[in-house]
Amino acid sequence: MNIVGFIGSPRKDGNTAWLVRQILEGAREAGAETRAWHSGELDIRPCQGCLGCKQGEPGCVIDDDMQALYAALEGADVLVLGSPLYMGQMSAQTKAFTDRLFAQISPRFSPHYTERAAKKALVLAFTQGNPDSGMFQPYYDYTKRVFQML
Ligand SMILES: Cc1cc2nc3c(=O)[nH]c(=O)nc-3n(C[C@H](O)[C@H](O)[C@H](O)COP(=O)(O)O)c2cc1C
After folding, report:
1. Is 9 in the pocket of ligand 1 (CB under 6 A)?
2. Which domains does the chain have, with CATH numbers?
């Protein structure tokens, strides 16, 4: 099993990085191949909405570090999506990353999707400051549903 972890916090050694790394470590011990990607070390520009990914050649036209992530995700079975909660939502870094996934994992709109890309498992690894663990559950559920709709 191949697992990609995305750390969408600007803090390299913060709570989100710790959580994602713990998940990957457990998976590694169980025999998985894992790699963590830290948003702070990546140039991931926001989606331009050109829909170039749905016409002509497959893939996103923006030439930045997302290209390496697309390649990693192509062979991955699982995405561990790590983000701190900022103002009740995922961080801007995580949002830029997830918007760009539209080019790869949105089969309904794409002539280019592969079965493998469509069948990835998603693990949400969100962290929050509020001690009420249920407070943002509706947002976490909603985020899961958005991925299921793609
Ligand atoms: C700009 C900003 C906004 C935040 N908004 C929320 C929030 O709406 N709800 C919450 O519970 N925690 C909020 N927090 C706290 C973080 O989600 C929490 O400390 C998180 O674990 C930080 O992750 P990190 O250590 O990986 O950066 C916020 C923190 C920052 C810096």
Report:
1. yes
2. 2-149 (3.40.50.360)
